[in-house]
Amino acid sequence: MGGQDLDFNHRLNPKRFAFFKAWVSLENITRLMQQGFQNTGSNELDVLSLDLDGNDYYFAQELLKTGVLPKIFILEYNAKFPPPIKWIIKYDANHSWDGTG
């Protein structure tokens, strides 16, 4: 449901991996990405995985607009709506998945 604390192996290289616990919105996603770049000393991404249960489309769009181009971009989708169905929820900064659908 989000907001869980995560436990990472402390041997991860902080120059190659950044983690922040934050509520993501269109207003802060670029700043969070820039903060990650600062922490790792890089402005390139190998892998970006985005699974935020609802607003993913808008967040991906925002990151791509700012020039973030990871080598691999993993995005969540709902298999209940197979191609060619295109369905996007209305952006809601306070959206929280309720466990349905």
Describe the structure.
The chain is built from two helices and two strands. The protein has 101 residues and is an alpha+beta fold. Helix 2 (56-65) links the parallel strand 1 (47-50) and strand 2 (72-75). It has a domain at 45-92.
What characteristics describe this protein?
alpha+beta, 22% helix
Spatial order of the strands forming the largest sheet: 1-2
Total of helices: 2
What letter string, H or E per element, gives the SSE order?
HEHE
Largest sheet at a glance? 2 strands, parallel
- What is the 3D shape? globular
Distance between the ends: 13 Å
Mean pLDDT: 82
Assess the beta-strand content as a share of residues. 5-15%
Taking pLDDT < 50 over at least 5 consecutive residues as the criterion, the unreliable ranges are none
Global Rg: 15 Å
Total count of strands = 2
Structural class: alpha+beta
The level of helicity is 10-25%
